[in-house]
């Protein structure tokens, strides 16, 4: 991808650290110095870039490199902005980086990071590019084998990255008030609110569930205009999608806009049969009101076409996630569903008809004709230009949320090319929900909750009264407050005091605090977050010499990271590791380090 991809919080979170008591910093960005990787005698000098927030990881990396014959120069930056400035200036040989695959599919884990021209890529390798594209079209064992080839080329053949570990997820629940069994901890998708219930279910209608996030400034409440930690969870719960991810990253229709979905045997056509028990909600007097407007196939077509179109909104943040969508249309002929076969030999019509309130007797193109109980359904067909089964994972991303065509077009009356944020108000601007603002709340929510108002302290949500009422997916709790607490230790204190009811990210160093509190319960799950060393492949010795990179690679002993974190980390090979176990493994090998360093020195 050569387009803008994902912002910091939901994608590439980069971290690096300093030695306590021995901190070297650079306050000014200097031009890339191609001679920084010098040799002190026979020892190559490696500049390690990072932020001060991951001190222990940097300590371990430094010690492992020094042990294997390197001198290590630390470039410590206090925050992410300073870090990226140093990285963009090329002032590093290796940088401690991490990536979380929030869509549950391996293509997201590699395309933007390692393909030539990718938004975060410092790699330009035709073999890697080809393998990324080939793997994206495959499933099952074929995909596993192709991603194994990719890992071999990316890590062992060329050492473009050096893996450190896979992280885990730790969630704290105030079980004195909230039923822990109703609080999900998915591997990839954002926290799902509609299942949560108080222990005393009678409180669900009267008490407020208090959740937490660190960021108070919301990028945008338009799901295609933002992809970061300030809005991922909020937009996930405000907008329904065609499909969802299960807690273990399976693509499912449960809790989505579709009763079911089917994939044609060519892996280029995708069909979704829509439910008719979700209407858009709007806000009147700080209450959620049923608009009577069905979340329909027309809204799906509108939403996904704007999702894939870079020019549909100013500062589109997510269009490259959906660039493999070719067409989106409403099916008008039921016989077309009978003639298309799926991989298991069934017709699409059969596949879509498994779990419906009534058999499909008619497909309709106008929402006014929809009546599921009478067998009248809307079916949406999506095509991709090439086989691309992972498109379903991208549809489960928050940017695939279905918005109201009427509500969005009523607000976005400006010309996108000449949009001025100082004078123009776009759908989803946080100013329209901020207390004291002169603008009216114009949100139209297709999901289980709608944002009523926010201030610097909290965001207030209420239940969508027209969201799958009477089904198991109807939201349990009426009112939710998302409390903004930037400091994680303060958030943990708030959890212990019952000021918040769920802390989605308990620091792994504080899990014993949660486990030792009788009012709390700790939940643990696998995650898709991988930490790794990223090599500078432009202007430095690490760019010129694969032998030097491989010497660094084989200096890394992942067991030492796992031991330090008391078993709360797992071995990694690449950013694909949490998703597909290719069978490859990185072993620390000082003999190989010496061989590669010798080859490097001889080539100079």
Question: Which secondary structure elements does this structure contain, and how are they paired or packed?
Answer:
Layout: E1 39-40, E2 43-51, H1 55-67, E3 71-77, H2 80-88, E4 94-100, H3 106-114, H4 126-136, H5 140-157, E5 161-174, E6 208-213, H6 232-238, E7 244-245, E8 251-252, E9 258-263, E10 269-274, E11 279-284, E12 287-294, H7 297-308, E13 327-330, H8 334-339, H9 348-352, E14 362-363, E15 376-377, E16 379-383, H10 391-395, H11 405-411, E17 449-454, E18 458-463, E19 479-484, H12 488-496, E20 502-503, H13 511-515, E21 520-535, H14 541-544, H15 546-553, H16 558-564, H17 590-603
Parallel strand pairs: 2-3, 2-4, 6-19, 14-15
Antiparallel strand pairs: 1-2, 4-21, 5-20, 5-21, 7-8, 9-10, 10-16, 11-12, 13-16, 17-18, 18-19
Helix pairs in contact: 3-4, 4-5, 15-17
Protein name: Antimicrobial peptide ABC transporter periplasmic binding protein SapA
Domain Solute-binding protein family: 262-597
GO molecular function, one term: peptide transmembrane transporter activity
List keywords for this structure.
D-Maltodextrin-Binding Protein, domain 2; 21 strands; 25% helix; four-stranded mixed β-sheet; 604 residues; alpha+beta; single chain; seven-stranded mixed β-sheet; Dipeptide-binding Protein, domain 1; 3 domains
